[in-house]
Amino acid sequence: MTDLRALIFDVDGTLAETEEVHRQAFNSVFAANGLDWNWSVAEYTDLLRVTGGKERMRAYREAKGQSSPDDAVIAQMHADKTKAYVALVSGGALQPRAGVTQLIQAARDAGLKLAIATTTSPANVDALTRALWGRAADEMFDVIAAGDEVAVKKPAPDVYLLALRRLSVPAASAVAFEDSGNGLRAARAAGLRVVVTPSIFTAHEDHAAASLVVGDLTGITLPELDALSATMPDAH
Length: 236
Ligand code: XBP
Ligand code: MG
Hints:
alpha/beta; six-stranded parallel sheet; 43% helix; globular; binds magnesium ion
């Protein structure tokens, strides 16, 4: 192994297939607020182009040409949506995606650092790690960099740069794991090698800029990750 020192994981769609749970949480809050909004799977797939729940709701409002709910109501709805999501995740329906648990364990055993670089909130990450592994997020990951901690969300590199800074590891010594085009662009722009495991909601996207695209992380080894070329394919 040369110099692989850290693995940085996206959360939604990468650790687990969470987006369907996010969709249900959004829709439950829309109904509770008396809105006629109800995001279908197809609509939500399209809306995922906008990263971040608040940003997604604002973009939807604008696309409909509406002026309400205003940003303050959207912020409140997003807080309620986080509570609804945490309750659904804590209900226990989700599993880690294949190979994720084994890779995290292998990295731990090898003394690598582990980080999260996500668009979602720390509360959602913590609910997810407790549901998947029975452990708090900050017990499992050395560093957690989350959406609202940075000025600009994915596809901007900010959240990955924050994770790298907190890890004190250069981009060349880390590998990122993503499921989406937005996440891939963010990690690439931070100078990282990127493994993409497309998820249910991102399978249709172009992931050609990844260092490696695999169906899931089953059987992937640290030497294999370390050998991924530092030379990035041309961005699309
Ligand atoms: C996923 C997202 C998030 C979730 C909802 O990004 O874009 O917005 O859909 O989470 P990533 P919030 O996979 O990079 O985490 O509502 O908490 O924003
Ligand atoms: Mg994702």
